[in-house]
Specification:
Blueprint (H helix, E strand, L loop, with lengths): L1 H11 L15 H7 L9 E12 L6 E12 L5 E5 L5 E10 L25 E5 L4 E5 L10 E11 L5 E8 L6 E8 L21 E8 L3 E4 L3 E6 L5 E6 L12 E4 L2 E4 L13 E6 L10 H16 L7 E7 L8 E3 L2 E5 H5 L4 H8 L8 E2 L5 H18 L11 H11 L9 H23 L1 H15 L3 E2 L1 H15 L8 H9 L5 E8 L4 E8 L17 E4 L1 E3 L12 E4 L3 E4 L9 E3 L9 E3 L1 H11 L9 H17 L4 H6 L10 H17 L3 H22 L9 H17 L2 H15 L12 H10 L2 H12 L7 H13 L4 H13 L7 H11 L3 H13 L1 H7 L4 H12 L5 H14 L7 H31 L4
Parallel strand pairs: 1-10, 16-17, 17-19, 20-21, 22-29
Antiparallel strand pairs: 1-2, 2-7, 3-6, 4-7, 5-6, 8-9, 9-14, 10-13, 11-14, 12-13, 15-16, 18-19, 22-23, 23-27, 24-26, 25-28
Helix pairs in contact: 3-5, 5-6, 6-8, 7-8, 8-9, 8-11, 9-10, 13-15, 15-17, 16-17, 16-28, 18-19, 19-21, 20-21, 21-23, 22-24, 23-26, 24-26, 26-28, 27-28
Length: 930
């Protein structure tokens, strides 16, 4: 059937229109790397590939191949280009024009290079400089649009680690033989490493693959094998796969191995097996670890086929647990998924679900270019999360989306989000877009959202799409379902969010006399000073979903109104002054909400009653998180945020506790005053001790990962706050390390015990840790060395330990500490009041020697000055830095601007300190009770 369809497409030229694609399971960093890649001219477009590859991984790392590309001329040409990696050696290249009516269409799908019977005259070709491209000169008159070409190329190349085509080995557990396998990893643009092609996602055409390989090995590709025959030497076989549906080159897959497999099966009568056959491949001795994979895949695949409303067009889905596979992400081609053994055997199903989502959104419908990476990635991640939760496979996923929300709130509230870090920008932008999809699912309704996705796939299957196609599909469905006003489009809503590296905050000020409220939106800034240029120009399209205490309903997520880029709106018909309201429950939209003091008071009081569970845990967490971040930003009185923690005395759901630990860390670092710092540590112990004692020290059978995480996190923060049972346990464990015969061979102590010992115990233990760092063997993991140095510098509260470390690094310039080590030490010291106070005093006392030691290292000198002066937040700190600046103003050198910046920042921080620290001290004293 595919042969007939493809030949018709070839004759009418439809395949040549397949240049509107997007992207899919492409890692965002990799996509960014090819974002600026110059596109092929588009003078000719492929119609299909007939590709042959020959591999023998046991004998050689080389491979050989031949590709015959059928292409159509789009513009008058004499030369054209295609992709071929510089390491790919082209042995012959020929081009011929042919007329399809005089050509047997069945020959197109014969997988042998001999299928082409047409003589191919010689052409010349050359590599295109600075690009992995080949330019071919036809040495003929200009070819007119509509002409058909056959491009015949023979080539050879080498297999590498994980890009393109690669080989890996493993040891068979029974025979102890070394076994090899070959696989392809072609995303985002590594198909050109394997064969000359039009390696852009927009060119979606069929590929007929043939593989010559050792007879004892099995070959698996996107499609089933159509025919197989022994070669003349009888040691090798050529497997000819059926032509694929139209697809991008990076979706081509090949695995040649001696792995074994089992077919899909499930004992769960509630799970219907998909029409697509599922095969799971692994080492024979590893099969037992994969017994649940078939059930997971069958359950998820069945759900996704219903979600998309489209069956997978492929006959088979082959899932591999590859031994010694070291790619950073799974290999997700169409119909072939490749995982690390540990990934496929793990308890959770998130990775597996995400790769299955890509079978539709990426393979069946494909993004048009790499600049669509974040939208495609975000939609895939959201559907992955949604699917994982819907089918109940949430063992390792139950903290979604709070962790992601907290992360982007932190990043987008900075004065300068991302800095110059492209990777952070890509990741946070994609996460924000994922949350926009979540917001649309809530506000438009799950039915509308799902049907909108079905519109997209139905319209773009075997084709390409871009972001506008997604928003248009959702708009059309929402207007059809009447879940969105006709004058409003999803394009407009989404654009107001994803085109800004910022987020809004909505302030709700109630009028209790007439039961109304004024809602005001503005730029959310957490990091001071709030001096972002043009911030008044930022406006978002914000859904206002509201829950009222007198008629609590958290299931209705239809917005009562949209703030369509309006600075301020009024809403009426609210409850009286005895009842609270909650805007943006369940964090429907990615924005915090502030209220007037009276509404916060009503929320505080209600959360301390037994009825608090009527507010879902996500919303309880949101209220706490909003309060603390708004207080940290200076937009809310600190006592309100502290009052919001009172309900935690009776709270045991780990999701509600999640924001607290960030609060403890951030506020703890903001307190300069030693007495207030001790009071705050005492309150932390008072808050966490009942929780930790209720949870117990040992995990209980069948408890959730969330509960285990809560216990571990509570213990870590209790240790940092000086909880004696924890300190004693940590000290006992640490002494096992001190008493070991060869302490430098490894660390027998869990990381959670190291910091409390360095913070609360004596100099002896800390010095032992320092000796372990100095004697750290080169054979051990460098990450362990880094962690040890972080704790040595960042954990001590006793200035003597810090001074000892500074003696070694700043004065003695001990050779055991590299410049990178010193940067890390300074960074850790700047993060705690004991650290930067001690560093400042040390710099003042040893100014001349330190200045001399770092005269030839201006960047390190700048870092020393910045870490010593930039973290103060009090009048005392301002006076100390000002005195130093007046005394040494002519001696700072290039660091002069750093001190000036520190003085400006301290003045801004003092405003927050003066307003909040005295209030915090009064509150802590008033609540100082067991």
């Amino acid at each position: 059937m595919w042969k007939i369809i493809l030949y018709i497409l070839l004759l009418i030229g439809s395949v040549s229109n397949a240049r509107n694609v997007e992207k899919r399971s492409i890692d965002l960093i990799a996509a960014q790397a090819v974002f600026q890649e110059q596109k092929l001219p588009g003078d000719i477009v492929p119609n299909y590939y007939n590709l042959t590859l020959a591999v023998d991984p046991q004998k050689s790392s080389s491979f050989w191949g031949n590709v015959i590309i059928n292409a159509t001329v789009e513009h008058k040409i004499r030369t054209f280009q295609l992709h071929a990696h510089p390491d790919l050696i082209i042995e012959s290249l020929n081009v011929a024009e042919f007329l399809p009516p005089h050509y047997d269409p069945s020959d197109m799908y014969k997988p042998s290079p001999s299928c082409c019977k047409i003589p191919m005259p010689e052409v010349t070709w050359k590599r295109v400089k600075m690009q992995p491209k080949v330019e071919i000169d036809l040495h003929s008159d200009d070819l007119e649009p509509g002409a058909n070409l056959l491009i015949n190329i023979t080539f050879r190349g080498e297999m590498y680690a994980t890009e393109g085509i690669f080989r890996r080995s493993y040891v068979h557990p029974l025979t102890m033989e070394t076994k090899w396998y070959v696989a392809t990893y072609l995303r985002p643009n590594y198909a050109r490493n394997v064969f000359p092609c039009f390696d852009e996602p927009a060119y979606k055409v069929p590929i007929a693959l043939s593989v010559i390989k050792p007879s004892q090995m099995k070959a698996v590709s996107n499609m089933p094998i159509g025919s197989s025959r022994r070669q003349r030497d009888a040691d090798s076989t050529i497997d000819c796969f059926l032509p694929t549906p139209p697809m991008s080159t990076y979706n081509l897959a090949l695995v040649v191995s001696e792995l074994t497999h089992f077919c899909s099966e499930t004992n769960d009568s509630a799970v219907s097996l998909p029409k697509t056959k599922i095969h799971v491949w692994a080492r024979p001795d590893f099969m037992e670890a994969l017994v649940n994979v078939s059930r997971k895949v069958a359950t998820t695949f069945d759900y996704l086929e219903k979600f998309w409303g489209v069956f997978s067009p492929l006959n088979e889905l082959n899932i591999f647990a590859l031994p010694n596979f070291n790619a950073t992400k799974p290999g997700d081609s169409w119909g072939v998924l490749m995982f690390k053994e540990s990934e496929l055997s793990s308890k959770g199903s998130w990775h597996l679900t995400q790769e299955l989502v890509y079978q539709w959104l990426g393979a069946l419908a494909t993004p048009v270019w790499w600049n669509q990476a974040h939208i495609n990635h975000a939609l895939v991640r959201y559907i992955t999360a949604y699917t994982t939760i819907q089918i109940g496979e949430n063992e390792t996923f139950s903290n979604w989306p709070t962790t992601m929300l907290y992360s982007i709130y932190y990043e987008f509230s900075k004065r300068h989000p991302h800095g110059k870090n492209t990777a952070i920008k890509q990741d946070s932008s994609s996460a924000k877009t994922e949350l926009v999809f979540r917001m649309l699912n809530y506000t438009l309704g799950e039915t509308t959202f799902r049907h909108g996705m079905q519109r997209l796939i139905a319209d773009r299957q075997f084709k390409t799409f871009d972001g506008d196609d997604i928003w248009t599909s959702l708009t059309e469905q929402a207007h059809f379902d009447k879940t969105l006003p006709e004058a409003v489009t999803v394009n407009e809503i989404a654009g107001s969010w994803i085109n800004k590296d910022r987020l809004p905050v909505v302030t709700v000020t109630r009028n209790y006399k007439n039961n109304s409220a004024r809602l005001h939106q503005r730029l959310y800034l957490r990091e001071r000073p709030h001096d972002v240029p043009d911030q008044d120009r930022f406006l978002w399209s914000i859904p206002i979903v509201l829950v009222r205490q007198d008629r609590m309903n958290f299931h209705n997520t239809t917005p009562m109104v949209w703030m369509m880029k309006e600075r301020e709106i009024e809403i009426a018909n609210l409850p009286d002054e005895k009842h609270f309201i909650i805007v943006n429950p369940e964090e429907i939209g990615p924005f915090p909400v502030n209220y007037d003091a009276e509404n916060w008071k009503l929320l505080v009081e209600f959360l301390q009653t037994d009825e608090r569970t009527k507010i879902p845990v996500y919303t309880r967490a949101k209220l706490l998180h909003d309060a603390w971040n708004l207080a940290y930003a200076g937009d809310l009185n600190i006592t309100i945020a502290l009052n919001m923690t009172l309900f935690l005395r009776n709270e045991r759901d780990y999701l509600a506790w999640d924001p607290v630990f960030t609060m403890i860390d951030h506020i703890g670092k903001h307190i300069d005053d030693l007495l207030v710092c001790r009071q705050f540590e005492y309150y932390v112990k008072m808050l966490l001790t009942p929780l930790y004692e209720d949870l117990g020290e040992v995990p209980q059978p069948g408890e959730s990962e969330g509960t285990t995480h809560l216990r571990n996190t509570a213990k870590i923060f209790l240790c940092q706050a000086g909880y004696e049972p924890c300190i004693d346990e940590a000290n006992k464990e640490f002494h096992k390390w001190m008493e070991s015969e060869n302490p430098d061979e490894g660390n027998p102590v869990a990381n959670q015990y190291i910091c409390p010992v360095f913070k609360w115990r004596m100099f002896t233990e800390w010095l032992f840790g320092l000796e372990r760092f100095i004697n750290f063997p080169k054979t051990r993991k460098r990450s362990e060395r880094t962690y040890l140095l972080k704790t040595l510098a960042g954990c001590p509260r006793y200035s003597g330990k810090i001074e000892y470390l500074l003696n070694l690094t700043l004065l003695q310039r001990d050779g055991n500490f590299s410049d990178s080590d010193l940067y890390l030490i300074l960074s850790m010291l700047a993060g705690s009041s004991s650290g930067y106070n001690t560093l400042f005093d040390y710099l003042v006392s040893n100014w001349d020697e330190i200045k001399k030691n770092f005269a030839d290292k201006p960047m390190l000198w700048n870092s020393i000055v910045a870490s010593a002066t930039g973290s103060f937040k009090s009048h005392t700190g301002l006076e100390l830095v000002s005195q130093l600046y007046r005394k040494r103003q002519s001696e700072f050198g290039n660091a002069d601007f750093i001190v000036e910046k520190s003085l400006r920042n301290i003045k801004v921080e003092i405003e927050w300190t003066d307003k909040n620290i005295p209030a915090m001290e009064r509150w802590l004293l008033a609540n100082d009770k067991e």
